[in-house]
Amino acid sequence: MTKPQIVGFPARLARYSRILGMSVALAACGDSNQYAAPPPPKVTVATPVERPISHYFDATGNTAAVNSVDLVARVQGFVQAISYTDGALVKKDTSLFTIEPEPYKLKVDAAKASVLSAQAALTQAQAEYQRQADLVGKQVSTQANYDKALAQRDSAQGDLQSAQANEQQAEINLGYTNVTAPFDGVVSARQVSIGQLVGASTPPTVLATIVQLNPIWVNFNASERDVQQVRAILASRGETTAALIGFPVEVGLQNEDGYPHQGKLDYVAPTVDPSTGTLAARAILENADRSLLPGYFVRVRIASRPRPMLLVPNVALGSDQGGAYVLVVNQQNVVEQRQVEAGQVVEDLRVIENGLGKDDRVVVGGIMRAIPGQKVDAEQRSLAAAH
């Protein structure tokens, strides 16, 4: 008996082989397309550099003359001489104006003659008084004569003192005829002419103005916040505002680079002006070359005593509605956004007042790749070596 044949077996076997091959191929294809997470982005980090930094108080002020005086005619008379050139720098006691002195010399002579007459009258009265005193002692004269002689002696003494005072006043008035410089300074253009009558009006006639230019003052104001900060620092050292007197002050004109003029703080007001919320202060500067003139607007800077501060590259700082911040990489290499209080710029570094520790790793390179909350591949760099 003939065995039945399995019809189509080779075809089915071939089909099964193709399906198995496709399955293996698909499995192999699935292994090669499995998802792999990308590596963390590379960033550069650095710890803050520590340096002794001076804080600066900056303000705008104006210069003012230490002394500025109107020279006036203190006696009446005609201007006899003008002994200076308009705008000249003169020394103290230099003669500037002469008001006719002759009438006042005559008054001095008359006053001296009155003194001599009063001295003679006193000498006679003193002799009469002594004589009456001797006679009364011998009981030869009366007490009335003695009292009269005593009164005449005292009256003569009073007359002499009055004559001497008149002489002094006459000498003073004579001195007023020579108007001199009360201090070293620059004298303005004259306001009178030779031959002009001065001193006959009220107020007195202004002859000219003299201004002292060396030294010179610089007046400026500090805000209430700055005052409180300075007082807090002083209190921590056990000092008062009196310790500020003599503190170095730097000054620069609006068209100058930096602060080329050096001076010292010489006055701090005892109270804050409630209308402006500011405290008035003043510095005094040497001005031998007269580069500063009264009335200039100037830039004022006062540096505090240096103290250690942390600095980071200025490019590492960002800002948002919360203020300034830096990106910090923690121990797990995760980026954190840290709010900081930024201070002044020193070269290309920025002082960090608060919010950062000296061991914090700050992102200084690849900042755009550093996203808060994500891991990064941090490469350490030394700021101290770079600066």
Brief summary:
The chain has 387 residues and is an alpha+beta fold. It has 5 helices and 24 strands.
Defining traits:
single chain, 387 residues, alpha+beta, conserved putative lor/sdh protein from methanococcus maripaludis s2 fold, Elongation Factor Tu (Ef-tu), domain 3, Helix Hairpins, six-stranded mixed β-sheet, six-stranded antiparallel beta barrel, 24 strands
The tally of beta strands, per DSSP, is 24
Strand portion, in percent? Answer: 25-35%
Q: Averaged pLDDT, please? A: 88
Shape: elongated
CATH top level of the domain at 56-66 and 213-303 is: Mainly Beta
Chain oligomer state: single chain
Number of helices: 5
Question: What is the CA-based Rg, rounded?
Answer: 48 Å
By CATH, the architecture of the domain at 56-66 and 213-303 is named Beta Barrel
How helix-rich are the residues, as a percent range? 25-40%
Class derived from helix and strand content: alpha+beta
- The SSE order reads HEEEEEEEHHEEEEEHEEEEEEEEEEEEH
Spans of at least 5 consecutive residues whose pLDDT stays below 50 are: 1-14
How is the CATH topology of the domain at 56-66 and 213-303 named?
A: Elongation Factor Tu (Ef-tu), domain 3
Biggest sheet character: 6 strands, mixed
Distance between the termini: 104 Å
CATH superfamily of the domain at 56-66 and 213-303: Efflux pump adaptor protein, beta barrel domain
